[in-house]
Amino acid sequence: MIPVALVVTGLALVVAPRFLAGWTGIRRTPRAALFLWQGFALSAVLCFLLAGPVALAELVGGDDPAMIAVTLLTGAVSVLVLAHLLANGRRIGRRLRAQRRDHREVIDLVARHQDGRTRVLAHDAMGAYCVPGDGARVVLTEATLQRLDDAQLDAVLAHEDAHLRERHDLVLEFFSVLHTAAPPRARAEAALAEVRLLVEVLADRAAAARTSPVVLARALVALTSARHPDGSLGAGTSTTEARIRLLVADEPAWRTALIYAAAALVVLLPLLLVGAAIIT
Questions:
Q1: What does DSSP assign to residue 129?
Q2: Sign of CA dihedral 234, 239, 244, 250
Q3: Does residue 46 have a pLDDT over 70?
Q4: Are 119 and 111 in contact (CB under 8 A)?
Q5: Neighbours of 12 (CB within 10 A)
Q6: Taking the C-alpha atoms of 138, 171, 195 and 10 in order, what is their torsion angle to the nearest 10 degrees?
Q7: Ordered strands of the 118-121 beta sheet
Q8: CB neighbours of 104 closer than 8 A, spacing ≥ 6?
Q9: Residue 141: what pLDDT?
Q10: What DSSP character marks residue 184?
Q11: Predicted confidence (pLDDT) at residue 25 exceeds the cutoff of 90
């Protein structure tokens, strides 16, 4: 029965990222890999959401007790997933926006202005990050200004500009909402970590194109121990070594196309199952 197939497929798609996390080769094409990761999460949610309506459509005109039980069960799954998804989206969105608003207000009070949206904190620890959203800010510490040369500083600013320009915060927020729609024990935390790494790689490559891979790599090494607050995106992370290796790594065009095709197939999977129900 198609409704059961949808639920089973959804469960398989929730579990699949645990194994996909070991396929680090797809990091070499970060944008395509990002589509694939988000495709798994989106497709799993679609499977659960569509199971109930499909079961209800199959029940029309029939009185099979087994089918009624399946309809009630899959309908409950669809309603619970939808309610959880909406509640999660509201909770995560409100929390992130409140964090960023409060942080921007504090930064504007205690930091000195430099070139529009850039703010400089009087701090002796390295730090460079951006606070996305309305009234976006790029935050640097005095230590960062003192220890990086002009070229490295330009690379770091280019990295943060890429985060803001490409709205990587929305990518992470969207994935976080889908990720937390799954039960805690079923979530693949490695998937969320991988998506965070991929958006950093995308920002790194944009910065390297504007400056140079060598300059950016030196800046990233200097910022390895830097930390940034929740809700922000920063150049310094614990994945610096992996990111430096991926600065100039590239994949053949055919492999990139293959990953995009796989992402599209994964997203279309629940719709194909629904199509099968309509045909039969």
A1: E
A2: negative
A3: yes
A4: yes
A5: 14
A6: 160
A7: 112-114, 118-121, 137-141, 128-131, 233-234
A8: 131, 133, 135, 137
A9: 92
A10: G
A11: no
Q: Which residues contact 57 (CB under 8 A, 6 or more apart)?
A: 277
Place of tokens 């009087």: 122
Q: Model confidence over 76-102: pLDDT tens digits?
A: 878 888 888 888 889 988 999 999 999
Residue 61 has pLDDT above 60, yes or no: no
CA Rg value for the chain: 22
For the chain, what are the domain ranges? 2-279
CA distances from 34 to 1, 77, 159, 249, 251 (A): 32, 27, 18, 16, 15
Buried b (16+ CB within 10 A) or exposed e, 178-205: bbbbbeeeebbeebbebbbbbbbbbbbb
Helices 189-210 & 150-165, crossing angle to 10 degrees? 130
Greatest Cα pair distance in the chain: 76
For residue 227, how many C-alpha atoms fall within 13 Å in the half-sphere facing its CB? 5
| Token duo for residue 56 | 């209800």
| Both tokens assigned to 132 | 């996305």
Q: Which two tokens stand for residue 138?
A: 């790029």
Say if pTM beats, i.e. exceeds, 0.90: no
- Per-residue confidence at 186, pLDDT binned at 50, 70, 90? low
Chain centroid, CA 203 distance in Å: 13
3-state secondary structure of 181: coil
Yes or no: say if 230 and 245 are a contact pair by the CB < 8 Å rule. Answer: no
Distance CA 28, CA 26 (A): 5
SS3 (DSSP) at 270: helix
Query: Locate tokens 């400089």: which residue?
Result: 120
**Confidence at residue 273, expressed as pLDDT on a 0 to 100 scale:** 86
Distance (Å, whole) CA 119 – CA 130: 10
Give Cβ neighbours of residue 48 (< 8 Å, ≥ 6 apart).
Answer: 6, 7, 10, 77, 78, 81
Which amino acid is present at 265? L
